[in-house]
Amino acid sequence: MFFVSSRYFKNTNMTFFTILILSTLAATVYTSGNYGDINKVPTTGASCATAKQDKLKVCGVEASKRLAQNDLGRINKYKSKILSVAKQKKIDPSIIAGIMSRESRGGSVLKNGWGDHNNGFGLMQVDKRYHKLKGTWNSETHIAQAVDIFISTYNQIKKKFPGQSNERIL
């Protein structure tokens, strides 16, 4: 679920999804913004529990590669919106795609735009209990709101741990 939570940023599954999901997008625009270079973030890959979402019998980096490949077609439908928001917010588009992949599998696990027991909304699962929802579940407005939440959380972590690199904060 996407809201201000340090739990979210400890999830290394999202990190590796991010690297793989938008390798094709990253080639068309800058690959880092004001919030670090996702390609410099070490990862152990997807947990076995995460891999089971796609009935995979592997874990770790190999599972992440397969999950990312499975999500790529769905995420690519939102490529122009991702790139637009990434440019506006000066953020690596791979971070946006990684959050989309991890939170909603590119929308495939949502029911009428909702997930997480009807608390998470949209591709990036903005939590209605903590945020006033903006836009439709798959709109650029929704993506921009979720990125603003990410940036706010990122800045809170950076303030709390000022000596950390951007990549460590990711």
TrEMBL record:
GO molecular function, one term: lysozyme activity
Residue numbers annotated as active site: 103, 116
Enzyme Commission (EC) number: 3.2.1.17
A biological process term (GO) from this entry: peptidoglycan catabolic process
Keywords, sorted A to Z: Antimicrobial, Bacteriolytic enzyme, Glycosidase, Hydrolase
CDD domains according to UniProt: GEWL
Broadest EC class assigned to this enzyme: hydrolase
UniProt keyword annotation of S-adenosyl-L-methionine present: no
Reactions performed catalytically: Hydrolysis of (1->4)-beta-linkages between N-acetylmuramic acid and N-acetyl-D-glucosamine residues in a peptidoglycan and between N-acetyl-D-glucosamine residues in chitodextrins
GO CC list: extracellular region
InterPro entries: Glyco_hydro_23, Lysozyme-like_dom_sf
Family label: Belongs to the glycosyl hydrolase 23 family.
Official protein name in the record: Lysozyme g
